[in-house]
Amino acid sequence: GAVWLWDQLRRSAQRCGFFLAASGGADSSCVAAITALMAKMLAETARGGHGASAQQHVVCELERIAPNCADVCDAAVLCERLLQVSFMGSDHNSPQTRRRALSVAAELHAHLTVVNIEPAAAAVVRTFVDAT
Fold first, then answer.
1. Closest CA to 87 of 16, 19, 2
2. Hey, which bits of 1-132 come out as E strands?
3. Fewest CB within 10 angstroms: 42, 50, 58, 126, which?
4. Are the CB atoms for 90 and 121 separated by under 8 Å?
């Protein structure tokens, strides 16, 4: 999974990392953990852990994908740069769910934003109710 994510990131036009809407559940937590594993593998390679040729290739690709990254040899720094996690809270989320999502992001050193989507969700529901 982590190698596939790296391959997708290298080939994509996004060239900035991944966005993950985290619910605090198993699915989003697993995706976040796999992305953190990718960052760990990249940092190890950037430090020369898999040979000079691999090191040169990974460092060059990271400079293209994550320009101005503070330290490509530090997995936590890479994860913060490459993984944007957003907890999109609504009335349907419990405090425990929110805590789990925040905990996963903090543990993996992912960049985190918290957004209250309740007003937008309520507007969509009102639109459908009004249309029917």
1. 19
2. 18-21, 83-89, 111-116
3. 126
4. yes
